[in-house]
Amino acid sequence: MTASSRTSRAQSFNAAAAQYAANRPSYPPALFDAMEDLAGHLLTGARVADIGAGTGIATALLHARGADVVAVEPGDGMAAQFRRAHPGIPIIRGDGNTLPLATSSADFLTYAQAWHWTDPAQAVPEAIRVLRPGGALALWWNTDALDVPWIAEAADRTGRYFGVNVPAEKRAVNAQVVDPTGRLDFARREVRWSRRVPIDTHLANLGSHSVLLVQSEETSAAFLAEERNHLTKAFPDGIVEEVYDVILLLATNP
């Protein structure tokens, strides 16, 4: 992804913030159990900054876990949606490349579906600066479980339609990619989970992904119409079981 493409796709969410909040999948409790296990300390009572917080899906879960959490979000539309949904959680405008946070002020820095919008050459030193000694940088992504046949077929259709390689993108989530500087030692966990949603919710979730948001309305609508036909045949009861592998990478600040 080029820098200009990354910027365009990152900014595309602001116009679709409500759709994003209503239809994107959440994260399972086992993810946060894994974070605590790898970090060696609990989220309860921890000072947490959730970077690229978007509409607050992960932020709210961290708050419910007992963390003292603040959100950091660069986008106007996403921040406005966050404030409507989570008026009791503080939010600061900013991004991962230049964190608006004090040095050694956080026990956890979290990036849910957001690290790939940063420049690691800037974001890694910023994370090291903001984390206290022993604090944890946690990055995670909900990725499609490509060993599930219908999901693999859907990923193949998406790849052909938009010229993306979904399996390659999943394989690319590794320590060398997220930290090309090699300054942090990342541990990796995968957590499988699923949710059952109506076809309309599944399609709205697909429509909130940047690869569709940057397309023309006609292109996106045509793709989603084709997907509806495939899904109606695969799920005649109208309920889709989305299966995800959450990929978690966590590094402790030296």
Report on this model:
By secondary structure, this protein is an alpha/beta fold. Helix 2 (17-23) packs across helix 10 (199-207). Helix content is 44%, strand content 24%. Helix 5 (76-85) links the parallel strand 2 and strand 3. Strands 3-2-1-4-5-7-6 form a seven-stranded mixed beta sheet. The protein has a single domain, classed as Rossmann fold, CATH 3.40.50.150. It has helices at residues 3-11, 17-23, 29-39, 57-64, 76-85, 120-130, 149-162, 166-171, 175-178, 199-207, 210-213, 217-234, and strands at 47-51, 68-73, 91-93, 106-112, 131-144, 186-198, 239-252. The chain is globular. The model is unreliable at 1-6 (pLDDT under 50).
Topology, number of strands = 7
Order of helices and strands: HHHEHEHEEHEHHHEHHHE
- Record the strand order, biggest sheet: 3-2-1-4-5-7-6
Our estimate of the beta-strand percent is: 15-25%
Radius of gyration: 18 Å
Number of domains: 1
Tell me the CATH topology.
Rossmann fold
Instruction: Write out the CATH superfamily name.
Output: Vaccinia Virus protein VP39
Secondary-structure-derived class:
alpha/beta
CATH class: Alpha Beta
Using the 3D structure, state the CATH architecture: 3-Layer(aba) Sandwich
Helical amount: 40-55%
Biggest sheet layout:
7 strands, mixed
- Ranges with pLDDT <50 over ≥5 residues? 1-6
The CA-CA distance between the termini, in Å, is 31 Å
Average pLDDT, to the nearest integer? Answer: 91
Rough shape? globular
Number of helical elements: 12
